[in-house]
Amino acid sequence: MLDVLIFATLNGVVTGLLLFMLAAGLTLIFSMMGVLNFAHASFYMLGAYCAYSISLYFGFWVGLLVAPLIVGVLGALIERYGLRRVHQSGHVAELVFTFGLAFLIEESVQFFWGRDTKNYQSPDILDFALFTLFGQEFSAYRGFMIAISVGIFIGLYFVLTRTRIGIIIQAAITHPKTVANLGHNVPLIFMGVFGAGTALAGLAGVIAGPVLTTFPGMAVVLGSIVFVIVVIGGLGSLAGAFIASLLIGLLQSYAIASDVGMQDLLNVFGIDFPYDHPLADLWGLTLPQIAPILPFLLLILVLIFRPTGLLGKREE
Predict the structure, then answer these.
(1) Residue 89, CB-side half-sphere exposure with 13 Å CA sphere
(2) Spatial contact of 25 and 241, defined as CB atoms under 8 Å apart
(3) Residue of 216 and 132 predicted with greater confidence
(4) How far from 24 is each of 28, 171, 201, 220, CA to CA, in Å?
(5) Which of 28, 168, 223, 277 shows a CA-CA span of 20 to 30 A to 109?
(6) Per residue in 38-70, is it b (16+ CB within 10 Å) or e — as a string?
(7) CB count, 10 Å around CB of 182?
(8) Of all residues in the chain, what percent carry a pLDDT higher than 70?
(9) Is a pLDDT exceeding 80 seen at residue 260?
(10) What totals of helices (H) and strands (E) does the chain contain, helices first?
(11) pLDDT surpassing 50 at residue 316
């Protein structure tokens, strides 16, 4: 039992930090520009595919460095020549634009790389067990994923709260005209932030590709979860996104690792139903079966009891 708990915790932390890498870029974009980018997970997928192609010729590490830059530059160009023009028409137009962009990227990926799953592998240097506990191995690559994710959180938090660039970005969020009057190019700042946010999504794809497999539907798998994380953490809160990512990662991991069913929960309260009851199938559900919907149940509870999210600020 103890070994299951420990490895469920480790897997939950790895999953949660991977989700944070993806949610961090979306949080950065929303906090800066007020744009909920529906195509964010598509940039994550694009990062994985770019890294896969680069790794075929130059290896994993070159892909790790170059693929996020490619995705970031593409994101910056989309903001400059597309989203900036649409922004003048309001948030609905932005949502429709990014929604359409998600489909465009997905179709482009299938056109250039095909519909089959790609054999994107982790580097050989990390192909060993970091440690063995209770007879089970924890791979070095998963440890690498944890280190990268924690490093991104610390780096972003430091840049946004302790550097001149961060101060300018924070000021541009609430007082763009004042920042412009001080001689700073606010549209260029917006373009840079959007590019940085998409680059973070691309980096998440590079890291996740070898573990979660690289295939055309990978954006759909995590796309909705990212928005759940951003809302639960609090729109625009980096620390909130970090906490929400870990919370969802652990919640799903514990649910998958458990063998508790609805019948067990009903027995605790002394409730029993005959097998011919109309809801017999419902009482037969197990926690691993409903694990995929738990983040959405948590989202509903958070919206009911704390609509601003865990660390979100109430708008005045």
Answers:
(1) 11
(2) no
(3) 216
(4) 6, 19, 8, 18
(5) 28
(6) bbbbbbbbbbbbbbbbbbeeeebeebbebbbeb
(7) 11
(8) 90
(9) no
(10) 15, 2
(11) no
Instruction: Please answer whether residues 200 and 267 qualify as being in contact, where contact means their C-beta atoms are separated by less than 8 angstroms.
Output: no
Rounded mean pLDDT, 249-260: 85
Structure tokens at 19: 């989700």
Taking CB atoms within 8 Å and a gap of at least 24, the contacts of 10-14 are 10/138, 10/142, 11/253, 11/257, 12/246, 12/249, 12/250, 12/251, 12/252, 12/253, 12/254, 13/146, 13/246, 13/249, 13/250, 14/142, 14/145, 14/146, 14/249
Which H helix or E strand runs over 183? none
Average pLDDT along the chain:
85
Question: What residue ranges define each of the domains in the chain, with the CATH number in brackets?
Answer: 2-305 (1.10.3470)
Decide if 68 contacts 47 (C-beta within 8 A): yes
The reported pLDDT for the residue numbered 76 is: 93
Residue type present at position 165:
I
Query: Residues 177-236: pLDDT tens digits?
Result: 787 887 788 788 888 888 999 999 999 999 999 988 899 988 888 888 888 998 898 877
Q: Considering Cα of 232, then 237, then 241, then 242, what sign does the dihedral take? A: negative
User: Which three-class secondary structure string do you get for 130-149?
Assistant: EEEECCEEEEHHHHHHHHHH
Position 108: which residue type?
Answer: S
Q: What is the pTM of this model?
A: 0.87
From CA 211, how far away is CA 208, in angstroms rounded? 5
Write the CB contacts of 18 (distance below 8 Å, at least 6 apart in sequence): 145, 149, 204, 207, 208, 211, 249
3-state class (DSSP) for residue 118: strand
Tokens representing 71 are: 């995705």
Give per-residue pLDDT as tens, 278-296: 666 666 677 777 888 889 9
How high is the pLDDT of residue 275? 61
Neighbours of 77 (CB within 10 A): 13
Burial 190-210 (b: 16+ CB within 10 A, else e): bbbbbbbbbbbbbbbbbbbbb
| Separation CA 244–CA 230 (nearest Å) | 8
